[in-house]
Amino acid sequence: MDLDEAPLLHEPDLMLAVLRVGSQGDATPCACVEHLRRLRVQAHEPPVVAEVDVRSGLDAVMCKLARAKLIERLPQSRFRTTARGREVLAANPRGVDDTVLMQFDEFRAALGRGKPRLGAEDPMVAPYEKGFADYQAGGGLADNPHPADSCAHQHWQNGWSQARDEARRQARRS
């Protein structure tokens, strides 16, 4: 099973785990793995992905979070959540993803996107948010307004899928 298909192991879940564990002080990827294990136990979800795959996913999101200056890397594979990271965590308690990270110049610069022009919509964020809102308004996956071979099509679909996944998680909790 792929990380993206595993409960509690989507990229936004991994980012939340890193930010939460790192907000308690100096932390390690092992502490994040343990945090995720406890979440799975609480949710009565069996471990469906090898720990090596979870660690690989954590490494990838830690790189993104470090680029956005939400975590600070420390010696001996340790890290901690920065003040900016704690603010983002407080503002996004249900999930942090690339659309959140895109608001930071450092993250965009690392992607080679630079600073957005004033008044210009971010080409990645706007379709994502529209897809998210379209799902919440009852739209289907086939309602994607963007050409199938465009990045905007994929970003809209990602937003729609994220909204669907959140709705499913909410339904399971109820």
Summarize the structure.
By secondary structure, the protein is mainly alpha-helical.
User: How many separate domains?
Assistant: 2
**Radius of gyration, taken over Cα atoms and rounded to an integer in Å:** 17 Å
Shape: globular
Distance between the termini: 26 Å
Taken as a percent bin, the fraction of beta residues is: under 5%
Q: Which CATH architecture of the largest domain?
A: Orthogonal Bundle
How would you characterize this protein structure?
It is a single chain. With 174 residues, the chain is mainly alpha-helical. The chain has two domains: 96 residues, Winged helix-like DNA-binding domain superfamily/Winged helix DNA-binding domain (Arc Repressor Mutant, subunit A, Orthogonal Bundle); 59 residues. It is 56% helix and 5% strand. It has eight helices and two strands. Strands 1-2 form a two-stranded antiparallel sheet. A hairpin with a 3-residue loop joins strand 1 and strand 2. The protein starts with 10 loop residues before the first helix and ends with a helix. About 5% of the residues have low confidence.
Keywords:
Arc Repressor Mutant, subunit A; mainly alpha; globular; 174 residues; two-stranded antiparallel ribbon; 56% helix
Please describe the topology of this protein.
Layout lengths: L10 H12 L6 H14 L8 H17 L3 E4 L3 E4 L1 H9 L6 H4 L3 H6 L14 H12 L14 H23 L1
Antiparallel strand pairs: 1-2
Helix pairs in contact: 1-2, 1-3, 2-3, 7-8
